[in-house]
UniProtKB/TrEMBL annotation:
CDD domains: BY-kinase. Residues 47-91 are annotated as: Disordered. This is CobQ/CobB/MinD/ParA nucleotide binding domain-containing protein. Keywords: ATP-binding, Nucleotide-binding. GO terms for cellular component: plasma membrane. Residues 61-71, 82-91 have a biased composition (Pro residues). One of its GO terms (molecular function) is protein tyrosine kinase activity. Signal peptide: none annotated. Residues 72-81 have a biased composition (Low complexity). It comes from Acidicaldus sp. It comes from the Bacteria.
Amino acid sequence: MDCRHAWLALAEDQGLEVRMTAQTKTAHLIERAAQRLRGMEDLARSAPLPEGAEDPALPASLPPASPPPTSPAAASSLFAPAPSPASPPPIVAPPPTSASLAAAASAVAPVELAVMEAAGMIPWGRKRERIAEEYRVVQGQILRAIDASAKPGSCEGNAGMRNMVMITSARPGEGKTFSALNIAASIAQFGSRPTLLVDADAKHNSLSHQLGLVDVVGLLDLGAGRALRIEDLVVPTRLDNLSILPIGGRDGTRAELAARVPVATVVERVGRRFPQSVIILDAPPCLSTSDPSALSLIAGHIVMVVEAERTRRGEVEAAIDMVQACPNITLLLNKSLLTTNSTFGAYYY
């Protein structure tokens, strides 16, 4: 057998093996081609595209991706302000005890002369000015009325305390606090009598404010059911024979105390505690509150301050009607312009 026939015979005998080898070689070639194509695609993707060119791997008609749907509540919450951090609960201070109030009152320093003069007190003793002489005349009349009321039957049935003088006016701004301060200072200085000036104006508390005693324990605290001694709340001054009883109550509780504390009842307690002292009340205006009407039942004397050229006669008459329970009412004309021929002139030693 020649070589050709021998090769064919071998091929026929091993045909299956030959066919399997060819298929295997074909599959191997296809796999190598596919790997080469994948390598070329990966290389193309890694290379940067020119500006404005599109990626051929993506279809040109691919629509833009739309945001996921959100509910109205979720959308509004995206723009809602961030919640503020929760604030801690307020710290409520415990109410003051009687012992703490008494200790605070005893620690108050005497009121200096400079403070009282800044509040409007006349500088007594430096020189004899016209206004100083006029208030000396007023304090002399008050002391004579107090002494006269001590006689039997002189008060005409009035149950008021003869040592208590209420200074008031028809309406605010007429000078009652200024007059109360200077009448009390004049009695203490020239009358040589212990004098207690009481701030009984719970609405305006001008006296306590001007003397720097607005936060000091005083009159309203006595009527708040606290076990306090009146003498512990009296503030001394640098002027001999003159002491001050502030209105009392803190800024946050003063209005509440004034609404429920009977001021007249507390003032009566003060009068009975100091029967040998002259008690000057800086009371509220008659046409702004009912306190002057209640105080007129216990005050032995009333000085009604009237501002010249401003207070109307009808207002004065209405104010007098409110305090007519006291028979001893004196009108004090304030802020009047008089010539030197009708009053005191300047006089120096």
